[in-house]
Design brief:
The chain is an all-beta fold and about 130 residues long. Helices cover about 0% and strands about 50% of the residues. The protein is built from no helices and eleven strands. Strands 2, 4, 5, 6, 9, 10 and 11 form a seven-stranded mixed beta sheet that branches. It is globular, with a radius of gyration of 13 Å.
Length: about 130
């Protein structure tokens, strides 16, 4: 059974940095597409970033492009989200998602992913 456990969330000042981690277990990580989504109170869950199985294909939401970096370590079975130049509008619960399907134009959609972590809170103060 695939399990995803996020960590690294917390409180940070505007302009600061934070790195989220998602530990994968129970499956073959190197054959799994990974993504990050976020959801703010009263808002719909939105796509943040995704990486293909090998990390060659990567995509970002326009709102985070140039500030966030997604990466994966297939030896540690972990995907990361390095966040810099954080803004108050980045405040949300961040979720790690996984699916054995290869990268696809549909990976912007949360329902495309089969497995989800519990989420980790990121709060950016002004």
């Amino acid at each position: 059974q695939v399990q995803l456990v996020e960590s690294g969330g917390g409180l940070v000042q505007s302009g600061g940095s934070l790195r989220l981690s998602c530990a994968f277990s129970g499956g073959t990580f190197s054959s799994t597409t990974m993504g990050w989504f976020r959801q703010a109170p009263g808002k719909e869950r939105e796509f943040v970033a995704a990486t293909s199985r090998t990390g060659i294909n990567i995509d970002y939401a326009d709102s985070v492009k140039g500030r966030f970096t997604i990466s994966r370590d297939n030896h540690k079975n972990t995907v990361y989200l390095q966040m810099t130049s954080l803004k108050p509008e980045d405040t949300a619960v961040y979720y790690c998602a996984a699916d054995p399907k290869r990268d696809s134009p549909d990976w912007y959609t949360s329902r495309w992913y089969y497995y989800w972590g519990q989420g980790t809170q990121v709060t950016v103060s002004s």
